[in-house]
Amino acid sequence: MKRRHLILIGAIIALIALVGCSTAAEESLNYDQAMEKLTAYSGKINSTTVTHQPDSNWLNKGASVDELPPIDKYPLSVKSNGQINIELFSSTEKSGTSADKWLDVQAQKFNEQNLKVNGKSISVSVRPIASGLALEYITKRKHVPEAYSPANQLWGEMIISAGVPTVMVTDRLTGNVPGILMNKVAYKRYTTKYGKVTVDGAVKAVLAKDLVMGHTDPNLSSTGLNFLTQELRACDPNNPFSEASLAKFRQFESLIPPASPTTKEMSEVAAKGIMDTMIMEAQAYKAEPSLSDWVFTPSGVRHDSPVYALGKLSADKMEVLKQFAAFCKTSEAQQSASSFGFNQYDGYKGPDNKYSGAELFTALKVWKANKDGGKPVISVFVVDRSGSMAGDKLNRVKTALTNSLQYINEGNYVGLVSYSSDNDITIDLPVSEFTPKQRSFFAGAVNDFDSNGGTATNSALVVALEMAVKAQAKVPNSKIRIIVLSDGEQNEGLSLHDVLGMVNGIGLPVYGVGFEANLTDLTQLSKLNEGYCINADSEDVIYKLRNLFTAEL
């Protein structure tokens, strides 16, 4: 009996050790092991290729879809109701939903003074909103506040060029600068070879493969837009849009990771060791303790938070805005700003902006057309149509996917997989070049989606991976993107553990779009390589999918 117990205990210990080793091995699969596993899983998963009728109506839908969510999706951080109230759009480094950032604090203090203009009480309300998103609300006239304080003057130039009546109230509310951030090893290597850190030098170092630089989406990020303008000048100081500049720009883009939507996602990619250099504001750098081993060097146009009056304000409203700007520039307010990480590099002058608003819009188009460095992108979409997606959820996703077709670059390749239960995984669009014909078949497939059954996300992911890998073998020098859109956790088929090591070993970036979902699984998948995960809902899924397509496809 005692011997049986010993044997049983030994078996249990061996099993525990085996499980532990299996987990370790799963996390460290090399490429060949991962491909072997993909082949094994693919042979066990039943998927059906479904032929859909093409739908060319997508050609007319782009202009009619309202891509921006309701403005209340971005609530006021400071809400006031003076008889004369100014609503101010503020970039998010200065204000936030918790109402505890610097500009929120100043607005609250200003409102507490109970000041009056012409006998009427005055106040300021603050709406935290990313500078690029604010630009869209304003230029598309969906919601135009009385005032706007982006991170830098580039956004103001674009608003002026769009014909919105604009008056600069102050060119500086508080000081901040963008910069280039390098880990200490890269910084030492760079300075030894190139000397002082500059945008010109960083571009040269990337082209020489001495640096791997991360950056943020210039459509959304002030630092991303700033660096884009400086980078194009570095490619050709005389004409940033010349053929020589664009050729060098494409080469640069081919050597760096995909753009991240925000500094947060870019920092997460950097933490994986994928990049040794990135761009960031000084205030954000100071606020992030995990970057203490990185070296910050100011570069680019200053980010001094100018304030603009928008529309034709009454004399009273203009007076309120001027008083608030003056209040924020008092010594007490600026001391507060310094405590929040602003005003660190007041000795840095930076280059003057040399772009008109129209040229800045052109720069964004140049970035979109050339951001993949001339390499075709193979994208396979994996769309959840399980029972929980029924009704408005699936309808909004269908609208978002169809609308986003206009943001996929020509010359790319696209495939589509949809799924519910483990026995209901369909290849709705085999991977092919994204011609107008392929777009029409994509739209037709999306229109046919219906919801039912369970959620076999990881089994469907394997089907998409196999499609992408096979397509890449036929399209030399291409990049792969896997985009998974789901509203829930997997409850059928392969587990997350089954696919993590495989995705990691093959090295494919997975982008997760969680639709009113628990993001745990999608986040783990997206963190493996260069991908990221976003959360969307019925109100903003059209906007967020558009941004993802713009940046990655």
How would you explain this protein's 3D organization?
The protein is of the alpha/beta class and 553 residues long. The chain has three domains: 29-64 and 371-552, Rossmann fold, CATH 3.40.50.410; 71-173 and 303-360, 3-Layer(aba) Sandwich (D-Maltodextrin-Binding Protein, domain 2), CATH 3.40.190.10; 178-301, D-Maltodextrin-Binding Protein, domain 2, CATH 3.40.190. It contains 21 helices and 17 strands. It has helices spanning 2-27, 31-42, 58-61, 102-112, 131-139, 153-161, 184-194, 199-207, 222-235, 243-253, 263-271, 282-287, 315-328, 331-339, 357-370, 392-404, 436-447, 457-474, 496-506, 520-526, 541-552; strands at residues 47-49, 84-90, 116-117, 120-128, 147-149, 166-170, 178-183, 213-214, 277-281, 294-298, 307-310, 377-384, 413-419, 425-433, 479-486, 510-515, 533-536. The strands form three sheets. The chain has a seven-stranded mixed β-sheet, sandwiched between helices. A six-stranded mixed β-sheet has the order 3-4-2-5-11-6, with helices on both faces. Strands 8-9-7-10 form a four-stranded mixed β-sheet. A hairpin with a 2-residue loop joins β3 (116-117) and β4 (120-128). α1 (2-27) packs across α19 and α9 packs across α10. The termini are far apart.
